[in-house]
Amino acid sequence: MSRWLKVMAALFAFALLSAACSSSDDTTTTTAAQTTTSSGTAVVSIEGAGSITATFLPKCTNIAVFPQANSGAEEAAAELGSETAAFVGPADCGDATGQIEFMTNAVTQGVGAIMVSNNAGDELAPSAQAAADAGIPVVSWDSPIPSAEGESVFIAQVDFDETGLVMAEMALDILGAGGGQFAILSATPEAANQNAWIAAMEEALTADDKFASLELVDTVYGNDVAEDSVTQALALVDQYPDLGLIMAPTTVGIVAAAQAMTQEGLCDQIKVSGLGLPDEMREYTESGCAPQFALWSFVDLGYLAYYVAYGIATGQIEAADGVTFEAGRMGQYTITADPTRDAGLRVLMGPFTVYNADNVG
Length: 361
What we know:
By secondary structure, this protein is an alpha/beta fold. Helices cover about 40% and strands about 20% of the residues. The protein has two domains: about 55-155 and about 300-350, 3-Layer(aba) Sandwich (Rossmann fold); about 160-295, Response regulator (Rossmann fold), CATH 3.40.50.
């Protein structure tokens, strides 16, 4: 009997030791993905936790910035050991509601996450809400859902109010202290990001007396189609003989306007500025036709969007105000209430880079 008791005691001690070791291992695994800042804020490091299916939905697939963003998403997926997201979307950005079908299809397919640069305004909201109701996180990037309906969080490339101010500053720098007339060549009337940037620029113009000499005469839309944008740019020239600048907060529109002014020999009279890709704008900046323009990294934007979508889909982070996380090579970010909308959450990426002849090369 005593021998049996000794055996049972040994087995019991072994069980306790095993449980202790298991508990210690579990604790290490859990805390390894979480650190704490000096202020005591918990920081979740988003790590590989299995593969998910996902849809990466741009405004359209035929504009250079969107494949660039997708390459960032592919980089993130590889780091996390996850399946590459399906890169799908309308071929033409002029089809503002074309994204709805792709969003609906993604919900039907039961993907694990959707990342979308919204081109349809709040017309996209019902399909985004359908995704949310199905438990699919919807992470917008580049351009949010204005009402935030169905959206988990928006990855903002830069602060939208800052974008408006940067465009106003560039306009003043280009036109000079004497100011003058300028017009805006945007993409589509439904593009939430560009509408917000334009509104922020209009607010900046009225909020500071230093912009009093600038006169915004018109806003037109080229549908992010090169031919349409050229037509609209030349129409502005015909309609406003005193026009000194075309401000295009779209990578398609700014190139189209610069090409049009160059081909028409109008660069000495009318300058071009806005948001553009350095590789596409270099010749026009070096020629003086587009003295300044600005942008951010779309590769980084796609990378960050995938990390956030993956973190939410795998339950590592919650789409909630105050959640702080680490996203691979991009580092630490915090989810906050979006100050540029009445509702919704935002992760602010940044920074802005203003290009001129000194740094465009």
